[in-house]
Task: inverse folding
């Protein structure tokens, strides 16, 4: 994982990325959000969509208001329902009258602390988009691309007019995405990566980190990285039974201790996928090869 760039960060500023796309950075930096969540505004001035409005933070909402100005908001679109992505949707919808569209609602009760943002219990979409369905506005079309894995309800949005793909947390511009069971699924995540690799998007705009201008190259590297992690797990299990936590110091040397839980959960997601494929077995918290 790369560290954040030096401050100052462009928090609250509307950054024009291309004619149809503006970006506003929320003030919620953390070890899991990098410099913060990036909300995107798609439109030329006659009507726009807001993608991943972010946390329900008054300062961020004021920055979005300033970026939108007098423009009509046609839709508020959410890639998934973690609390750093969707909570501002309800407040923004009340202010603008725009419908909330995109991912399905999803709330899980966790038995322990999460390594990423918890789920947004306030999210109530007016329309759930299925894979291939489109939302249109003046001069723009956003098509849903289902990418489960990080969470089961994750969507990306393809801007058909420019070849851009808004990737939420499925692909980030600074780190690989965390996959946390029970809802995060490594098998689904790998299939979603393969799905994007088969596409020909020009650029990725992630919710965290900079734009990705060589998308297929990055996706190919991410697939290779995950396969390498899987091979490491199998190799270490060849030395004897392990708990998920046992893998972290062996596989993630020098990792910030704040991220150890995320690494452990990622290992667990790999182990569950290997178990489904009949390659490993578990007894309680102990994993071993078959």
Result:
């Amino acid at each position: 994982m790369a560290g954040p760039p030096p401050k100052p960060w462009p928090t609250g500023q509307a950054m024009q990325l291309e004619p149809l796309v503006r970006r506003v950075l929320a003030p919620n930096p953390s070890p899991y959000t990098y410099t913060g969540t990036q909300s995107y505004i798609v439109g030329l001035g006659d009507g726009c969509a807001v993608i991943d409005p972010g946390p329900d933070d008054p300062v961020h909402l004021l920055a979005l208001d300033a970026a939108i100005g007098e423009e009509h908001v046609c839709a508020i679109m959410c890639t998934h329902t973690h609390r750093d992505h969707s909570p501002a949707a309800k407040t923004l919808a009340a202010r603008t009258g725009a419908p909330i569209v995109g991912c399905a609602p999803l709330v899980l009760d966790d038995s322990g602390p999460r390594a990423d943002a918890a789920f947004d219990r306030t999210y109530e979409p007016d329309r759930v988009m299925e894979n291939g369905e489109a939302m249109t506005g003046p001069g723009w079309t956003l098509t849903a691309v289902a990418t489960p894995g990080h969470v089961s309800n994750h969507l990306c949005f393809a801007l058909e007019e420019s070849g851009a793909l808004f990737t939420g947390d499925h692909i980030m511009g600074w780190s690989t995405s965390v996959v946390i069971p029970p809802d995060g699924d490594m098998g689904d995540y790998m299939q979603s990566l393969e799905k994007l690799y088969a596409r020909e998007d020009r650029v990725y705009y992630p919710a965290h980190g900079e734009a990705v201008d060589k998308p297929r190259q990055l996706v190919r590297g991410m697939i290779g990285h995950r396969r390498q992690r899987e091979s490491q797990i199998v190799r270490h299990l060849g030395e004897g039974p392990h708990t998920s936590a046992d893998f972290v110091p062996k596989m993630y040397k020098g990792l910030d201790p704040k991220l150890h839980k995320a690494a452990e959960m990622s290992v667990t997601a790999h182990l569950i996928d290997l178990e489904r494929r009949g390659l490993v077995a578990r007894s309680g918290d102990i994993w071993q090869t078959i």
